[in-house]
Automatic annotation (TrEMBL):
Residues 494-619 form the Palmitoyltransferase DHHC domain. It is found in: Membrane. It is a multi-pass membrane protein. The keyword Thylakoid does not apply. It comes from the Eukaryota. This is Palmitoyltransferase. Its EC number is 2.3.1.225. Belongs to the DHHC palmitoyltransferase family. The lineage of its organism: Eukaryota, Metazoa, Spiralia, Gnathifera, Rotifera. It comes from Rotaria magnacalcarata. ANK repeats lie at residues 128-160, 162-194, 195-227.
């Protein structure tokens, strides 16, 4: 770079406009400029921006400085662009390139010419202290890296403003191939720059999960700190600088959950301002990290920073409304503030709150029916009394019991309460003095349906554990799984769960409610508050089928009873004078249940029998590669071919399956669609 050339003096607006034009006209050059000098994207650094633009105008197309932007804070201010600027200069003639330019543009023949002629030494830095291996690493030029190493380049050369190694540069930009090539040639994975920042910190901040998985699987401490006491978890909460652009096809994702699963200290505080990871996620407006931290069972939501601000107060100061709302809900759901104090001992227990929720639903449904059935009281009292009682009880329930998970508990409590009340009503109003076939079918369907509900709640739906993971016949630890995920380019985030640290089998999915991956995942049923997977789906279908039968029989007998008296009385007289209000109340409740249960049963039978897919695949099948033909790319369904087998498997008729010589597949051991023929059930 010619330091004597005249550099244009640009205003911040003009400089920002030039950056915008560069990004539009040449995204690759913009990404490299940003990778070399990320501080240029922050406000207050106009003089650095002018220098970088002048360097670009001189023909390099790349900045010479390098930083990892390891500062605790990143400017979130948006730039506004209004002025068109000239296009960036074209690529220089390869024969006229300097050695640095040749490496940056991957002109390997020019590099060989300069090195083998003795004009350049591979271990000589440029004028800003950067080495050829740094430029090759950050641009992911694999053949150049091999050539430079073969010519004697030292893999752990320290260069740039932060005295970092080529491994640091590769980590920041997500150059996994360059990273592993350097590691295989002896690069130190625990090397630190001038600020004590290691590759694991950079990988965590910039979301390079494959690199992070390899580092953790290779034994790097998940809680290692830099010179300021920041851990990789804190860097992941800080996140990349504004406008960061990784190289194409890199596995760029928020790594907070991955670090937490690996055992990162969620409550660690850096020594200067005493910020925790939660404070960093709030300060940097990182909702993904914040949500992952808040779900952690050991998170301390009352920890205070050096200014004596807990996360809730800090979120209000930073005007982070989403964080404020979630923290307020979390604090309210802990029930640690309720009075009288002696009740805290019981109501902080999630199990007690769960059963209180179920009892509350049964109480409300019974109260409504009994109130309308009280003939001795006036009409208005029978209406107002349950409204007032429900209003008061709801306020008490909201204060003492209600939490985020209460919705699922309410839905399950409604199913059980309505089933019990309908069954009791059948015995009182609809049961024949002498048992008929319909009575026997109704009682069997109700009792067996409730038994299947119990099986769904108690049996394993197909949770996948690390100790069950094998690769080519060998059992895998989480460290080995992480290294295999990092090394194998065929393993994408579709094949790896960052929460469970397992290789995800075909048709499986992570259930966020249960916090585990489920083989042949169907859905998490709100009505039963249970996960439905490959090992309990047939119980779920039986619940729907027998529930539909019981509801239809109940409705048929009730309507038959009413229509028998229809010739003698008007419908209004029947509903208001002949039959109890309780019976009418239960008739409406049963009719409502019959509609949605029948529709749900039909939907699942079509999915499972005729299409052979799960509910998750029916709704999100476009995401999965096994629903696309490898040759044509058109949508296909590999599970639709054997409808009779699907029918037997859907209802759990496994002995008939074996008699018909159908193979039952263990979906927890199938990782490729081509394995289906050979993967039998244990």
């Amino acid at each position: 770079m010619n330091n004597n050339q005249i550099r244009p003096q640009l205003s911040p607006q003009d400089a920002a406009a030039m950056l915008a034009q560069l990004q539009q006209q040449n995204p690759q050059a913009y990404a490299r400029l940003q990778a070399m000098r990320p501080e240029l994207m922050e406000t207050g650094n106009e003089h650095l921006l002018n220098n970088a633009l002048a360097a670009s105008a001189s023909g390099h197309g790349h900045g010479h400085g390098h930083t990892h932007s390891s500062s605790c804070s990143h400017s979130q201010a948006q730039m506004h662009f209004s002025q068109p600027v000239p296009e960036p200069p074209p690529k220089p003639d390869p024969t006229q390139m300097s050695i640095v330019q040749a490496v940056q543009y991957n002109e390997i023949e020019r590099v060989k010419q300069l090195i083998e002629s003795g004009q350049v030494d591979v271990n000589t830095p440029d004028q800003e202290g950067c080495y050829l291996l740094h430029w090759a690493a950050i641009n992911n030029h694999i053949e150049l890296i091999r050539y430079l190493i073969a010519k004697g380049a030292t893999v752990d050369l320290i260069g740039g403003d932060l005295k970092s190694t080529p491994l640091h540069w590769a980590c920041r930009q997500g150059c996994t191939e360059a990273f592993f090539l350097l590691v295989d040639n002896g690069a130190a994975i625990k090397s630190a720059d001038v600020n004590g920042v290691q590759p694991i910190h950079i990988a965590a901040q910039y979301g390079q999960i494959k690199i992070l998985a390899y580092l953790l699987g290779s034994g790097v401490d998940v809680d290692c700190v830099d010179e300021r006491g920041l851990t990789p978890l804190m860097y992941s909460c800080i996140g990349p600088s504004s406008g960061y652009v990784p190289i194409p096809n890199s596995s760029h994702v928020c790594c907070t959950q991955f670090l937490l699963t690996f055992g990162a200290d969620v409550n660690h505080q850096e020594p200067t301002r005493h910020y925790s990871a939660l404070h960093f996620s709030i300060n940097n407006q990182n909702p993904i990290s914040f949500h992952s931290l808040l779900k952690h069972p050991q998170i301390n939501i009352h920890v205070k920073n050096g200014d004596n601000f807990d996360p809730l107060i800090f979120a209000r100061m930073r005007q982070n409304s989403d964080a404020v709302a979630q923290l307020e809900r979390r604090i309210q759901s802990t029930k640690a503030h309720i009075k009288p104090v002696f009740l805290q001992r019981y109501l902080v227990n999630a199990g007690i709150r769960k059963w209180l929720t179920r009892f509350f639903m049964l109480f409300i449904m019974t109260l409504i029916g009994l109130s309308v059935n009280s003939y001795e009281h006036s009409y208005w009292l029978r209406i107002l009394f349950p409204i007032v009682v429900i209003f008061l009880c709801s306020h008490l329930f909201s204060y003492y019991v209600l939490e985020a998970k209460s919705v699922d508990h309410f839905a399950f409590a409604y199913v059980i309460s309505s089933s019990v009340l309908m069954y009791i009503t059948y015995w009182i109003y609809l049961q024949e003095p002498k048992f008929t076939i319909s009575d026997i079918i109704y009682h069997f369907s109700t009792v067996y349906g409730l038994y299947c509900v119990r099986c769904i709640k108690t049996l394993n739906p197909g949770f996948i554990k690390q100790q069950n993971m094998t690769l080519e016949g060998n059992s895998l630890t989480k460290e080995k799984i992480c290294i295999a995920f990092a090394r194998d380019p065929r393993w994408t985030l579709d094949h790896f769960c960052v929460t469970c640290l397992i290789r995800r089998p075909l048709r499986s999915k992570h259930c966020p409610v249960d916090g585990s991956c489920v083989a042949k995942f169907d859905h998490h049923c709100t009505w039963l508050n249970a996960c439905i997977g490959g090992r309990n789906y047939f119980y779920f279908v039986r619940v729907l089928t027998f529930g539909t039968i019981a509801l239809i029989i109940w409705m048929c007998k009730a309507l038959h009873l009413i229509f028998d008296d229809f010739e003698q009385y008007s419908i209004k007289y029947l509903l208001t004078q002949i039959y109890d209000p309780w019976f009418i109340y239960m008739l409406m409740l049963t009719a409502f249940n019959a509609v949605w249960v029948t529709l749900m049963t039909s939907f699942h039978l079509i999915n499972a029998v005729f299409l052979g897919v799960t509910l998750n695949e029916r709704l999100t099948g476009f995401r999965y590669s096994y629903f696309r033909d490898e040759n044509t790319g058109k949508r296909t369904n590999p599970f639709q071919r054997q409808k009779f087998k699907n029918f037997l498997e859907t209802f759990g008729l496994f002995r008939l399956m074996s008699m018909c010589r159908y193979t039952r597949i263990d979906w927890s051991q199938v990782y490729d669609i081509n394995q289906i023929s050979g993967a039998k059930m244990n």
